[in-house]
């Protein structure tokens, strides 16, 4: 392969096959073997062969100057050529531990060829500042930077190889220097001139970056800088004169190119190159970005540090001023009134000061100072965490990687940071340890501009919270190595003093257009750096040995005329415009005193600590005094306002005295209110919501404020409608038979909800109120604006009436009108008298007679006399009259305004359309039924949610949930007024027939085939329709309603208890009879039931009694919620506590619902009626089938549905997915195994092999499964992508983070990082709550709203 390497690569580049199926991909298996790589270098010159191959392939891109020019290149071919660089990395991946002479020769030969390649990159793609007119065509820049990124690790590996052998390192430097000198790019176009400043003369060639061509690509200059640092680090620098003539090492020339590059970046930052377009901005961005900076910006800084250490510090700074084009400005030879030019000068001055800060302060490079790579990484991490606490992945992305894609983070992170575990959302975060904060440098050279601002703000905020001053002091840097020790004299040379003095003078004289606050901030930082350096040297040596004299020059230079640096610094202390920098100025002045004490040898350490503490105390005292003064002023202001208000009140009372003297009406009202309150206290002690002892309604709707027009309105029957936003959706959250579907064409649904609650209709609300007219205008506006939006149908379905709540952006598809709660006007004396005559038996007679009388109005055929005869035999109906139902009290039905009636229809039609998946039909008889069903199902879902979360039944719901539930119950109750009374009466008769014999009603389901809470809601809300007369709209009075609710609840509770008992027929009956009233009553019930069934025997145990009580408890909890919302009677306070045991909770619920605490007592109290009813219930053929095992029986209490149990370790899921085989495909094609979190089925997603027909349309396996398993709602885990997919319909879905986290508290979508993942129970519980609370649809809509997808994903094919 190696002998034909070049031919193979040429074939690969000219071919269109992918790399993974090419023979060239085998190179990784050969070149990464250390012994083979060594042999290929020594015997085959493999480095030379690889680089020659690259050069041959890229020869077409060379221009006349023998430099690369990629304008108009072929991207595909260029990408294939870059693949060859991988082979070079493989060869260099193992650094030799032992060098042979042959290896040295061959390696240096390869390096020489590589340097020739780099010569073609040195100075390529030069740019020249565009003046007057914007560049017409953006030049090509991506190819050059891509090439630089490919070479980044190769350059580092070449340097690493060189560092392992001293002779190789010296020869490599020699070759690199020779290659640099041979480059002809960017020659000077003029002769050297002399420049004068502060009695200093610089002899240099003039060059202006803003006028001459300049390139950002300088690989040889940067390689030379890296090799020089390695020479210093290994100590081989002492032998350098033997290899390179010192005369030829002109460091002014060596620093020229990097300095131009840094100046270019500064001028781009100052908006001087904006007419050159985005291409140059992008290059400068990558020049300083983490992907490229270690071999670009960082190496340029090192080269400038090398030059600064070898040149005269004054000459170096003069050269910097010249290249920044600021020399004449600081020499007072240039002035301008153009604000744009002044702004550019100020910005360039800021960048020039920043460069001096970097050159003098950035010493964390092995070889420049005595630090290790671990120290460098540690400092990077510290400064990243000074911005804000960060996740592990964010830290990794922000750190440079080595050739092995490692950042070194793991070895240092525990030393500098504390890990904070994540909550239910977000990531685990690393927070910086307090002891590391002192290393913070606000001008850290790897900060971008946004990072610098955020870090500065965060640290100032922290210091304020700690009560410290806001001075962000420069940290004490490590000392330079001897070869770089002269750099520090930049901070005390004459030019440096002159620069700072001129800047401070402009600020002190307040020439606002000549200085900026960032400029002053950088200058103060430099003063601090210089003072810290002087202090360090004075502490380490005697005064006579220290030649660093910044403080002396700062105080003496210009002091005769009152223009010393120190004088201007002192003057700046009192400037209002520099108040933000006052703490830093004070700290610098304090440091001057510390250095002065050190020079005078008058107890430097003690002096510093005392003075420093005094300074901080004085600052804190001032801050405290200022806060105290402001607090006292605010207090005085408040007292003054209160006094004025009090005086105004007294004046008003005096001038309107008659109003306060003549208030008989209001006083009588208050007396009445007091009497009502006292009466309410007496009645409400028991807090009863049902029956003749029903308490008083405590709350009605308060005055509501429309979220759109902000107007307040009372909720009244005749007022314009106020509506709640709401979302109606089908649900399987409560199903006991997952996968079962319901349809009006099959069975008795929707009038009778099956006990397995297979599919329900849930109505939720975010609780925001609007006027109906405001909502209609908003909805029309949404429709008009959204139709023009790209892919709007993915977010909201306009055809089905969807919209986003104007306030919280929750997804809604209807509104619920607010219906005022009818005040309870129960006369307790009348109720007691009625109760003596209206027994359960009499009530059943009256109902049966009323239904028989009304039968002619809604049914013509009279086929069924059997049921009528049965009813007559049972209850002696002859004594009952048709209108006897009215004798116990009636009242006029409430009249609603036109808008409320209209909104009742809007909501009912949406519930009917969504619940039955049918077209809108106002005349459908099931419209009111579906309203009752959604009311019942929503209450059951709410109770299920509260039990799952371990919360009390009352007091734990949020206001929005409570108001939504209350509005839904009142809306459902008002449906009878909107619909045909004959239809409501027919529905009532059909439902009542489940409990008692009703004339002309056949084929009613057995008590094992209905959900009794749905039946309770339907019967309670439809019974007022029986009071309807032909000429008058009537409804039962408060007393009649109380007894109707009571007897319906008693009948349904007894039937449900029997349902629970029969459903648990396989319970073993052990032992004899129990003791106590409850056990005796239960035993009697068992005895009666056993007479009519074959499977139940006489006798009862505590286990069976407790089982019945546990089974009936959810029904009672839902009934309590329902009657609380219907009547408004507050529940017992104990039901709001979480500590109530099920037994005590049952007692409180029975009390609230007017049931005996011993539920079996109901059968004793109504023995005459119930005995006959039990016989009728048990003789149903469905009961015998169920007891024989021929029909499925639903157990009670219902099991609470949860998401499937997931393994703790994600690798278990991956293992399951690897063994997954598509049932419809036999090929080996990679599948997308997807796990349904509702039922645990593994599906083959996004594959045509498993597509199915759904309503005549081809859909994917997940969409088809969701339609059956979750009524359209799906929650799937894509195993190989480690991603949750939420689905709500055929066209809508969204990704969601998986509940698996790595050790750093982060998710790993697409398994990109590959860290071990473990299940986070809290996040999985959040997913469960999202599903149980029916928020999946809302989550999808919100995520799609944020994403604003350009190319939508076809969710129906998932």
From TrEMBL:
Keywords: Metal-binding, Transferase, Ubl conjugation pathway, Zinc, Zinc-finger. Residues 453-472 have a biased composition (Basic and acidic residues). It catalyses: S-ubiquitinyl-[E2 ubiquitin-conjugating enzyme]-L-cysteine + [acceptor protein]-L-lysine = [E2 ubiquitin-conjugating enzyme]-L-cysteine + N(6)-ubiquitinyl-[acceptor protein]-L-lysine. GO terms for molecular function: ubiquitin protein ligase activity; zinc ion binding. Pfam families: PRT6_C, WHD_UBR1. Residues 909-1333 form the E3 ubiquitin-protein ligase UBR-like C-terminal domain. GO terms for cellular component: cytoplasm; ubiquitin ligase complex. Residues 452-474 are annotated as: Disordered. Pathway: Protein modification; protein ubiquitination. GO terms for biological process: protein ubiquitination; ubiquitin-dependent protein catabolic process via the N-end rule pathway. Residues 377-472 form the E3 ubiquitin-protein ligase UBR1-like winged-helix domain. Its EC number is 2.3.2.27. The keyword Metal-binding applies. Ubiquitin ligase protein which is a component of the N-end rule pathway. Recognizes and binds to proteins bearing specific N-terminal residues that are destabilizing according to the N-end rule, leading to their ubiquitination and subsequent degradation. Belongs to the E3 ubiquitin-protein ligase UBR1-like family. This is E3 ubiquitin-protein ligase. It comes from Cyprinus carpio.
